[in-house]
Amino acid sequence: MAILIIFMQEGKLIFPELSYKLRGIFYKTHNELGKFRNEKQYCDFLEKEFRDAGLSYKRELVLGCSFDGERPGRNKIDFIVDDKIIIEVKVVPSFTRENYKQAKRYLVSGGKQLCLLVNFGTDFCIIRRVLNPNNEARIIRRSG
Questions:
Q1: Residues 28-53 pLDDT 10s
Q2: Is the pTM value of this prediction over 0.90?
Q3: Structural domains of the chain, with CATH
């Protein structure tokens, strides 16, 4: 099985400490609520956990237009934490290409480097790191 590791030019993960803290919150959320809630319920719980952890965040933030002529309000993210990481919450059997395209669209529109795509709709919490396609990054594949 191949492991996908995403690095920036310097050879370091993007926002590793904050990502680690957020992953703990996501796992706690899934452990507490299970897989049968709706997206808004998970977001309510996440908001409480972000507050309790002292994290700076904004919920349901509308990003600017990504191209000339786009109607305002088309790009609304679930959360942005520390004005660095976009959080997109899903409750689906599995991620689709559209989920990844949506995350990339949010990254480009918001001018951010990293989106954590989180799925609570399965037996285990699934978290995917999505990078802004306009930023230079290397993808290294290792077998293991």
A1: 999 999 999 999 999 999 999 999 99
A2: no
A3: 15-138 (3.90.320.10)
